[in-house]
User: What shape does this take?
Amino acid sequence: MNAAVIITVAALLATKWLDCRTTLRRIGSPAGETNPLARTAMARWGMRRATWGVFALAALITGTAAAAALGSPSPWTRPAFTALGLAIAAVQGAVARHNATGRSNAVTRAVLRAHAWLRRRTDHDRNQRKITRRSHER
Assistant: This one.
């Protein structure tokens, strides 16, 4: 089972790297990013720094989770890490493929719907803060 965890880590890191690389190739400015959180980070810190910062964070989280899975006495930790990790790697791979080819697939359509929901949610929260701030200024 240790080999499965290591293979999962490799799949997660490889697909995240491909996602980051193809994202930088596909978009010319932060406005081209569909993820509102990533778009904000790109606008604040620059596209390359934000993109590779996300990769570094993902690598840190992946390594920490893999170490926890390998060190856990529970018999369910390694299979759970492997199943969840491979599912995430599949999504990252589908996004990287979409970025490289420009053709959407079922996974990227679902990701775009999630980004739209997140954008509506963050826009709503931002508008609520403006309304609250204005009412306090009176």
Helices lie at 2-26, 36-45, 47-71, 77-101, 106-137. Residues 106-137 form the longest helix (32 residues). The CA atoms of residues 120 and 126 lie 10 Å apart.
